[in-house]
Amino acid sequence: MIKQVLFVCVGIYFCFPLVCLYAQKGGDESVSEPLSASLSDSLRSRSLEEVTVTDKSKPSTLKALSPVQVISKAELTNFGFVGMADAVRRFAGVTVKDYGGIGGLKTVSIRSLGAQHTTVSYDGVVVGNSQAGQIDLGRFSLDNVGSISLTVGPESDIFQSARMFSSAGVLSIQTEQPSFTTQKTDEFRVNLKGGSFGFLNSSARYGRKLTNKSFFSLDGNYLRADGTYPFTLVNGRQVTQEKRTNSDIETVSAEGNFYCRFRDSARMSLKVYFFDSEQGLPASVILYNPEQNQRLWNRNFFVQGKYDTDFSPFFSLKGQLKYNYSLSKYQDKDPRYQGGIQRDKHREQEYYGSLAIRYRSLGGFTAALATDVIRNELQSDIPDALNPERYTGLLALSSTYSRNFFTATANLAGTYITEKVLGSDKERHPAAADDRKRLSPSLAVSVRPWSQSHFYVRASAKNTFRVPTFNDLYYLRVGNRNLRAEIANEYNVGLTWGTDVLPFTEYTKLTVDAYHNEVKDKIVALPTMYIWKMMNMGKVRIEGLDVTMNVAVAGIPLETSSRPRIIEGERGENPNRNEDNIHIRAAINYTFQHAIDITDPSAKNYKHQIPYTPEHTVSGVLNIETPWVSASYTLMGVSERYVLPQNTQTNRVDGYVEHSVNLYRTFEWQRLRVRVQLEAINITDEQYDVIKYYPMPGRSYRAVLSAYF
Question: What is the DSSP string of 522-587?
Fold first, then answer.
């Protein structure tokens, strides 16, 4: 019933702007003056000074129709985040599963919907994984990242690939592009990091301006750590000090980017990426059995290209192509295997293409149509394993209507999936899952009650689903090819407010969002008569609240100065900021989540909190910048969780609060800029688990030296 109502709302929405446009024809166009003037001006011939734009505009957290959170490059650098997962878990509504250490698997779940409902995009193109359906954030380095953003619910930017509309939320990683001036045609940067537990990380970037309209950049990154860190093991009344083993990791990654702008303002970019790693897999802590012999090798290569152009004042075109190759090899040494060793190798390939067209009218109405085609294949050397191939077609019709104080967007996404399966003899196998067809609507509105105030009221609803992964469907005897898609319904109501007129502040931003999510046909592993089997047996209800607040204190003058105030600015984004002042910025995020299992009223875990979902999560940061030395303090707090569906004391995982600090200073000599940063992570030496029996590191230290030419 809920989905049918949402379909009707989306249908009415798509028809409404057409009526409004017809009514405006021949009438007064002053109500749409800003857009109309913009389009009219674009038809005139003008001579403008050439400007090179080398970065994507930052999403507005206040005006967005759905919750959007952003971490800028300055924040990534100044706050001392250890890695991608450490930065992402600061977002409100996010749960990061971390299996410990630098090399442990790190996956992200948005508002308790599961990692498979989260799309991860890298420079605007989705990172795919049809085998497991979840992306390991640990493989991404922060050194070349320009910004990280998280969108929950319908996308405000409708000019996207169809794939971006098909999930509950999108984690977008945008890499940093070189910046050039008339005199500067080359850019070179080196980062060196060293720290506790054998941590060593070096990275380098080189960028060169080829012409006024084209440039390229090259990035390289090397990381290694032995990961042998101490932890406290509690066994009843016995408390012992142990050391984590088999947590070593060594990775090498390289990335090349080419950007070009043509005479007709068309833009093209090309990215080539390579990643190779070898790591130990730290197993769960088992009493009196420290033996851990599991190893994992990962190799990933992809090439992706994007092209977009405005071929008229009203129409724009965007295209994407990508090829992705992933190879993983798993090894376990144990006497129970024949020959004492088990090796599994999996190879996954993806071919992806997307085409989107956008129409912008004079009346505040924008529409977009996107279509994607995807081919995935998985090959395994496991005896009797099935090798599936999946063909996916996506179509998304989106529109936005904005007039005066009101903005709305709607999307209708259609998905068609068909599969075939080859046996180990490469002959076609009859075990392929049935074809899947589904329509998923979404709707979002935003109202600005007072034109002179940065205060917005927003509401959104979205229906999405996640297709069973190859492992869910075909993995040996555990897979179940009769699985249905896992359905998620999201509802959000929020308030956003910002101001730059409060005393002693540069800007203040506040967002409050209450949400209700429902997940049905949840895919879980359940025991059958002899073996475990994947089943559609779960139903989850999630109710929550996300609160974010950002405050920047107006620069405390060390000498008299004046500078304009900004509302959406961040440190380093205001060119008029006086560097002789002291600047203070504080941010805090709070999340409440009541995510309960409502599958079976007769079950012992009925209405119990689902595993690894804390009811309370808080993160905060305080950044103080002075002309002499700057400092940041961050905290991350999580309440108790439960390792299994039944919320008993035995299954309880204690909450924790982690504190970290860092100091940094930048020195400049002519064209050379050197930055020195010292970091202390988990300064209170808190002993805690994110995943039970996978202890996290205690207190650690890092030193960072960066040089810019």
Answer: EEEEEE-SSSEEEEEEEEEEEEEEEEEEEEEEEEE-SS-------SS--TT--TT--TTSEEEEEE
Q: How confident is the model at residue 428 (pLDDT cuts 50, 70, 90)?
A: low
pLDDT tens-digit series, residues 306-364: 999 998 889 999 999 999 999 999 998 878 788 888 888 999 999 999 999 999 988 88
* DSSP symbol at 340: G
The set of residues, in sequence order, having a beta carbon less than 8 Å from that of 33 and lying 6+ positions away, is none
Q: Which residue from 152, 143, 142 is spatially nearest to 108, judged by alpha carbons?
A: 152
Q: Amino acid identity of 617?
A: T
Residue 66 has pLDDT above 70, yes or no: yes
**Residue 11: strand, helix, or coil:** helix
H/E stretch holding 445:
strand 436-447
Binned at pLDDT 50, 70 and 90, residue 25 comes out as very low
Q: How many residues does the chain have?
A: 709
From 36-50, 318-332, 631-645, the region with the lowest mean pLDDT:
36-50
Q: What is the pLDDT of residues 72-109, one digit of tens each?
A: 988 888 888 878 888 998 999 998 887 766 767 788 88
Collapsing DSSP to helix, strand or coil, 637 comes out as: strand
Helices (H), 299-426: none
| Location of structure tokens 């992806």 | 352
Residue 74 backbone dihedrals phi, psi, to 5 degrees: -60, -40
Cβ neighbourhood burial of 152 (10 Å; 0-12, 13-18, 19+)? buried
- The pair of structure tokens assigned to 513 is 């969002």
CA 58 from centroid of its chain's CA atoms:
15
Q: Report, in angstroms and rounded to the nearest whole number, the Rg of the chain calculated over CA atoms.
A: 26
Structure tokens at 34: 């800003």
Q: Residues 6 or more apart from 70 whose CB is under 8 A from it? A: 58, 59, 61, 147, 148, 149, 150
Separation between Cα atoms, residue 104 and residue 695, nearest integer Å: 11
Q: How far apart are the first and last CA of the chain?
A: 61
Contact 631, 660 (CB under 8 A): no
Structure tokens at 297: 């090798």
> From residue 56, how far is each of 100, 147, 613 by CA, in Å?
33, 9, 34
Quote the CA–CA distance of 153 and 410 in Å, as a whole number.
Answer: 11
Q: How many CA atoms lie within 13 A of 197 on its CB side?
A: 27
Instruction: Kindly state the DSSP code that residue 606 receives in the 8-state scheme.
Output: T
Name the residue type at position 515. Y
Find tokens 């109309």 and name the residue.
36
* Helix (H), strand (E) at residue 20: helix 2-24
Residue 129 in tokens: 């994984």
CB half-sphere exposure, 161, CA atoms < 13 A: 27
Q: Largest alpha-carbon pair distance within the chain? A: 84
Supply angle C-alpha 182, 185, 190, rounded to 5: 135
Residue 529 has a CB neighbour count (10 Å cut-off) of 5
Residue 111's region, left for phi above 0, alpha for psi from -120 to 50, else beta, is: left
Q: Rounding to the nearest 10 degrees, give the CA dihedral for residues 83, 86, 88, 90.
A: -150
Q: Please name the amino acid found at residue 593.
A: Q
Q: How far apart are CA 549 and CA 508, in angstroms?
A: 7
Q: Dihedrals φ, ψ of 418, to 5°?
A: -135, 150
